[in-house]
Design brief:
The protein has 16 helices and 14 strands. By secondary structure, it is an alpha/beta fold. It folds into three domains: 165 residues, P-loop containing nucleotide triphosphate hydrolases (Rossmann fold); 91 residues, Rossmann fold (3-Layer(aba) Sandwich), CATH 3.40.50; 111 residues, Rossmann fold. Strand 7, helix 6 and strand 8 form a beta-alpha-beta unit. Helix 10 packs parallel to helix 15 and helix 11 packs parallel to helix 13. The longest helix is centred in the C-terminal third of the chain and has 14 residues. It is globular and about 70 Å long.
Length: 420
């Protein structure tokens, strides 16, 4: 609760061949012995994530990957996992051994980074054994078509200051500027957050989307009030002026909609994250596919985290139950969680994804792109619940452009009648 969530950190992935010094580089950057270092090739097997701060960039995640030249059947799997990290990479560090020439492995990963518009810093390591002169560095920059080639010795920390400055230069300017709710508010506006206290609520705490929304409201000098769903009506009635917006947990949508005045904006935490982390218009468009589902269709339920499942879990129990009720028959559900995302998406008639608070925007967009390429509609939890409850037009009231795209032009009074 006291640390920046991983999904809001700049993701810096470190790529290179085996024994290029990737793990040593992470240890040098963090000033800690985090990654296992060995002279045996292939010590790093799965991607390793480490959170840290690099000022003035701020909170980052360093991702140590397996060697790009790993061999054997297991080696191929490790390389595949390393390449999959690109879908969540904001900035790549390509580590070269100063004593070795450039190979097809480095050229291939560079090509993939350019295709995905990922900025790259080249790190020439082990320069204590093979010190380069400025001419060598210039030739390397020309050969790789990179502005930044930094000479370091990760074993003794030499060159870390220069590398951190290169990271600062290459950090995308707008990697974390997507709005959550602050752009909908003016200083002094009142936002009411509807937070049920149920089995899914951690004891003594709030869940991450609620905390992040609360912080964003405060950062924009607005006023945040918190209420359970049963107290929402009383909360609003005691205010001298109406709130600007009511933001609810999606599971309390019906009560929140009933108690929120028609001229007050209404949405959910999940829908806010659909806009910040992904593509709200695409996800709202995907809600239409719910009406086309037939008994026996396959539906993929995808979560970006691996939280403890409760008895009436939203993704495992509630949404599947509501979808079955909507269809009027049985559906075939598959569930994935964490970083797992199946390759054969074309088998599904619909993908239902969580809000994505635990992953960064680049990874969410990569998932959306993969689903779209497979020709499968995708919707997120909050959008799906609002649609199933018949109030999606109301839940999109803070986003008139998206609502108009989905439903066309309507007078505000007709929007309310549509919802009813």
């Amino acid at each position: 609760m006291n640390k920046t969530p991983r999904g809001n950190r700049l993701h810096i992935a470190i790529f290179g061949r085996r024994n290029a010094g990737k793990s040593s580089l992470i240890n040098a950057l963090t000033n800690q012995s985090i990654a296992l270092v060995s002279s045996v090739p292939g010590t790093t097997t799965d991607p390793v994530f480490k959170t840290m701060e690099i000022l003035p960039v701020g909170p980052v995640v360093l991702i140590d990957t397996a060697g790009l030249d790993d061999v054997g059947d297991l080696g191929e799997l490790r390389v595949k996992r390393s390449r999959s990290v690109l879908d969540q990479t904001d900035l790549a560090l390509l580590v070269l051994d100063a004593g070795k020439s450039i190979s097809s492995f480095e050229r291939d990963i560079l090509s993939q980074c350019r295709e995905k518009l990922i900025p790259v810093v080249c790190v020439l390591n082990k320069t204590d054994l093979n010190p380069p002169d400025e001419g060598t560095l210039a030739l390397l920059r020309d050969e790789l078509h990179l502005d930044d080639v930094i000479a370091v010795c990760a074993a003794d920390g030499m060159g870390m200051s220069d590398l951190k400055m290169a990271i600062i230069r290459k950090t995308p300017e707008k990697w974390d500027d997507r709005p959550l709710v602050g752009d909908l508010l003016s200083p002094g506006d009142i936002a009411v957050l509807v937070i049920p206290i149920d089995l899914a609520a951690p004891k003594g705490r709030l869940i991450l989307p609620q905390v992040q929304t609360l912080r964003d409201i405060l950062d924009h000098d607005a006023i945040a009030l918190v209420s359970k769903e049963r107290e929402l009506k009383a909360t609003i009635s005691q205010l001298k002026e109406k709130p600007k917006i009511v933001i609810t947990d999606s599971q309390a949508f019906l009560k929140a909609e009933a108690y929120t005045p028609p001229d007050v904006l209404l949405t959910s935490f999940s829908i806010l994250f659909a806009r910040q982390k992904g593509d709200l218009e695409l996800l709202a468009e995907g809600a239409k596919a719910i009406d086309d589902l037939l008994p026996g269709d396959k539906v993929l339920m995808a979560e970006a985290c691996t939280h403890h499942r409760v008895e009436d879990d939203i993704g495992r129990v509630k949404i599947p139950r509501w979808l079955r009720q909507s269809v009027g028959g049985e559906l075939h559900f598959d569930w994935v969680s964490g970083t797992t995302f199946p390759p054969h998406l074309h088998e599904y008639k619909l993908v239902v994804h969580c809000g994505g608070c635990m992953i960064n925007r680049r990874e969410m967009l990569a998932r959306l792109a993969g689903v779209k390429e497979a020709g499968v509609p995708i919707v997120n939890y909050g959008v799906a619940i609002a649609h199933l409850m018949g109030i999606l037009p109301r839940a999109l009231s803070p986003f008139p452009d998206v609502r108009q795209h989905i439903y066309g032009d309507m007078e505000e009074e007709r929007w309310m009648m549509y919802s009813e």
